[in-house]
Design a protein that fits this description.
Elements: E1 10-14, E2 19-23, E3 71-74, E4 100-106, H1 120-138, E5 145-152, E6 164-170, H2 175-191, H3 195-204, E7 209-212, E8 216-219, E9 230-234, H4 246-267, E10 273-278, E11 293-297, E12 300-302, E13 305-306, H5 311-315, E14 320-321, H6 325-334, H7 340-344
Parallel strand pairs: 2-14
Antiparallel strand pairs: 1-2, 3-4, 4-6, 5-6, 5-10, 7-8, 8-9, 9-11, 10-11, 12-13
Length: about 350
Amino acid sequence: MSHDPKVVWEQRWHPLREEWVLFTSHRGGRPWIGETHSPRDVEPPAYDPTCALCPRNKRIRGENPPYTGAYWFTNDLPCFAGEAPRPPSDDLYRTRPALGTAEVVCYHPDHSKTFVDLTDEEARAVVDLWAERHWTLAARPEVDHVLIFENKGSLVGTSNPHPHCQIYAGNLIYAHTAREVESSRKFFERTGKLLGQEVLGREEAGPRVVAVNDSFLACVPWFARYAYEVFILPRRQMGSLADLNADERGRLGLMIREVTTCYDNLWRMSMPYVMAIHQAPTDGGDYSCFPFHLEFHPPLRKPDTMKYLAGPEIGGGSMTNESNPDDRAAELRSAAGPHCKEVSG
């Protein structure tokens, strides 16, 4: 009897990005003698006097107050500016000023915590603050898009382990959002259906569900680009955080905590990831079809092995997933429950 993995040569259409993803799950167990990253079991202190995000500490510009909950401030080195000079431009090498602002949101004053450590109320407070900042920034005339994202862990390049995320609000509509605007519009024109809700229906009926509550579903999507990629999908049509009611904001916080707990429990380590909140642009257009959702992209395919973007991804421009989304979702589902720190403690 052969124990060789089933050979898979398959391309799957990513309906939101309108691109093909190559699936070759039989290659996931290929011999690997390249670089590995041993999990580092480092416990940061509750307070770090050198951290620019801890309460009462000095930053490049300014000083943090003695905050006790979720807290935001304008980034000391923003990538957008309220008054940016207009650079020279021509028809080929076009330029335009980067107008807007950038902010930092600290989830909690405790330097040692991550999202999994937040209480129900603290998790909701973070989502409430996201929504409030979205409303405020979206009202600025120069802001066409509000991107909220978290880089967690040194493997994705975070410069500070303090629990936090960033908000980029400017006149740049990021490329993935622009693609989702077009894909959802074309899908509605062709079918009369909402793309996000159609994806929700497919995933809810399939084997890739990771977690559910009354307002959201988390899954490893059928078209996942990374091995342990997770989408959080709303159960009703919405375009941004501004569309969530108070109960939904609370349930979103709980769902994020549940997903990140599954991540940490999977290999009993703090899972690195990039999380992005996909929201409709704020430039006044009609985005009634836009599929609001959250995406988590962990860079690891094994506890010590990265998913490197190499020739096909960087050189060719298309992703290859060397895993089976059904199997990865089952692994994450099985990792649900109390956080591993609580169990081991």
